[in-house]
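Consider the tokenized backbone below.
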């Protein structure tokens, strides 16, 4: 089911899911695969601009988890990543958590995330505990 906070793009083999509310606009997708990801185009994702393998490899590099994918032959759902959990503090930006993680918010609601999760470090995010790119707008250093 697609909502305003989620857009899907498919090439009949793989579906890329974009969650704009989670995107921190790091630009890794645009720089890494510009023939697919073009912020000035509408729609901004040209799923036919690269092979399925290239699409998957680029989506896996998304630091916020705003981009994800599932194979159309698989039942839709969360793809569990079998990987060691790694925490990386980025310069002047978020804390990146690689691997599976369960986050409990202030209301006690748990959200399971996998692949990469970007957590706010500057305190200005409007989507806490997740980074929404506000660190750039406020000139966060650290």
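A designed sequence for it:
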């Amino acid at each position: 089911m697609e909502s305003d906070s989620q857009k899907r793009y498919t090439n009949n083999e793989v579906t890329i899911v974009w969650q704009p509310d989670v995107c921190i606009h790091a630009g890794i997708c645009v720089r890494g695969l510009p023939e697919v990801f073009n912020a000035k185009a509408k729609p901004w994702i040209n799923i036919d601009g690269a092979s399925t393998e290239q699409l998957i490899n680029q989506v896996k590099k998304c630091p916020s988890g705003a981009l994800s994918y599932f194979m159309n032959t698989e039942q839709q759902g969360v793809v569990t990543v079998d990987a060691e959990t790694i925490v990386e503090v980025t310069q002047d930006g978020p804390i990146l958590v690689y691997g599976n993680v369960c986050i409990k918010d202030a209301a006690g609601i748990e959200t399971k995330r996998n692949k990469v999760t970007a957590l706010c470090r500057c305190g200005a995010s409007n989507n806490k505990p997740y980074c929404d790119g506000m660190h750039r707008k406020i000139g966060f250093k650290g």
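DSSP finds three helices and eight strands in the chain.
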